[in-house]
Amino acid sequence: MGTLKEPNHPRTPVPWYAVTALSRVVQTAMRARNSDEPAARTRTSVVRRARVTTDIRYGDLHPNSYLDVYRADAAASRSRPTVVVVHGGGFIAGRKSEKDPHAGADSASFALGHGPVLDAGYNVVCIDYGLAPHVPYPTPVIQLGQAVTFLCEHATEIGLDMGRVILSGLSAGGQVVGQYANVQTNPGYATRLGLRPTLDPGHLAAVMFDSTPFDLRPGARTQTPSWRNDLLFGLSLRTYFGLDPARIVEASVTDHVTAAFPAAFITDGNSGTFPHQASALATRLAELGVRHELVLYPRSDAELGHGFMAQPSAWTDDYNRRKLTFLAEVARLDTF
């Protein structure tokens, strides 16, 4: 792990009240919310052959403990791997229904790019979780565990195969997914955090990371920097993790992966985002003998920003093709 940088501590720490005040301004502008009530009543519909059930409560200890289930067809089926999606938003914003065509958007993708996964025959679950600063670190990791436990307990009732689980996260959601995967596969790390694994590592088929910050020690500095992104990412990190450098080291995904880490599909853009961190994680996984695929497109071909895979383009099409090929190899998708 020699390629990882040491912590970068600002000479003049930003006061906590200023961090929280700014984050609340951003949340208001983005209409982000914490609530113990669902966005709408639970309902089920069939859209484009998929059976969609929205706003299912998976827990009652933290805000935003709701999830949506997308079954690849309307018939009950437990033979399809389950993709659990954790949305991005810098830990302070975002929601599970972003870019969901079933919510009215005219798009072939939902949950930041997982429409093609559903169309290919996988079942998909999108979860909400509490937002900082009201909901502190590491509550979203705990909520992901609660959601997985709920899905395992109700798998037969819902019609899901929780013996083949794929976790997927974009940006902050990827960090939550990576930390959760470390808890499931690194017993010493789980003990250190005081968190209990909630999924048999043998049932965790793969993880997928889109534009994820894996090493939080350099702060929010992106490669090929974007001042706007660096400012927002810096605010997000401080809001969620606080100002304790030890917590940043604790939460950095790359530092804690082991040879038991699941197969990983790792993707990022090349401008104002974290491709250098994606490469560092891939290098570490290669050292450990963990199966993985790293997809980074050169900037000389196209300038691709943070979360580019959520926007339609030839590069997004190629990304989806490579992702589905990877999943078919690691998750044994049964055909219709």
Please specify the SSE layout and strand pairing.
Layout lengths: L15 H14 L13 E5 L2 E8 L8 E6 L9 E6 L28 H5 L3 E5 L11 H15 L1 H4 L2 E10 L1 H14 L1 H7 L10 E7 L16 H15 L3 H7 L11 E6 L6 H14 L3 E5 L17 H18 L5
Parallel strand pairs: 4-5, 4-6, 6-7, 7-8, 8-9
Antiparallel strand pairs: 1-2, 2-3, 3-5
Helix pairs in contact: 1-7, 3-5, 5-6
The rounded Rg comes to 19 Å
DSSP helical segment count: 10
The gross shape turns out to be: globular
CATH topology: Rossmann fold
Assigned CATH class:
Alpha Beta
In angstroms, what separates the terminal alpha carbons?
43 Å
Mean pLDDT: 86
What is the H/E string? HEEEEHEHHEHHEHHEHEH
Q: Would you identify the CATH H-level superfamily? A: Alpha/Beta hydrolase fold, catalytic domain
Beta strand count: 9
Helix content: 25-40%
Strand order, sheet with most strands? 1-2-3-5-4-6-7-8-9
- Low-confidence stretches at least 5 residues in length (pLDDT < 50)? 1-12, 100-109
CATH A-level architecture? 3-Layer(aba) Sandwich
How many independent structural domains? 1
The secondary structure category is alpha/beta
Largest sheet: 9 strands, mixed
- Beta-strand content bin: 15-25%
Please provide a written account of the structure.
The chain is an alpha/beta fold and 336 residues long. The protein has a single domain, classed as Alpha/Beta hydrolase fold, catalytic domain (Rossmann fold). It has ten helices and nine strands. Strands 1-2-3-5-4-6-7-8-9 form a nine-stranded mixed sheet, sandwiched between helices. Helix 2 links the parallel strand 4 and strand 5. Helix 1 crosses helix 7 and helix 3 crosses helix 5. It is globular and about 50 Å long. The protein starts with 15 loop residues before the first helix and ends in a 5-residue tail after the last helix. The N terminus is likely disordered.
